[in-house]
């Protein structure tokens, strides 16, 4: 019985250590209002390259990385010469950015996603490409989709990707000025 108890305790410690290093630990840190592991939220470079491959960049296009992070992974992989970045932690706030660009791209924080989309639609000439979670898709209400259309943008592509270190399924959504019927909605409420 003593051996079984020691094995049980060791297994519990091993599971606790695995959890401390994983997703649950990050969630617990955020719940406890302690400093989360910022690097956990950085997008994998191969995923960034994959997402950017869906944007029809031209060499002369101007592109803004809306939340570069300290690792600048999106910015470093933008395939144009005219590129810029914003990152609040590095002293360049997206909401203070002035001027127009052809594209806004990145993996914005969910809590600012809609505000970042609104500003992006007003400052972009060609498109917006954001990597978002399912909550971001759920945020696209009929009223918001109507706003996007009124800004002259349409959902052009939705690319479903998996990221095992995060929470599973993510969506790279590309909004462009190319009219289409990929998404339809009704402003009428239904019972």
What does this structure look like?
The longest helix has 20 residues, at 2-21. The chain has a 6-stranded mixed beta sheet. It is α/β, with parallel strands linked by helices and 191 residues long. The radius of gyration is 20 Å and the shape is globular. The protein is built from 7 helices and 6 strands. Mean pLDDT is 84; it is low at 26-30. Strand 5 (154-163) and strand 6 (168-176) form a beta hairpin.
- Average the pLDDT over all residues and give the rounded result: 84
Task: Using the alpha-carbon principal axes, give the shape.
Answer: globular
Distance between the termini: 60 Å
**Order of strands side by side in the largest beta sheet?**
2-1-3-4-6-5
The count of β-strands is 6
- Radius of gyration based on Cα positions: 20 Å
Describe, in short, the structure shown:
With 191 residues, this protein is of the alpha/beta class. Helix content is 35%, strand content 23%. It is globular.
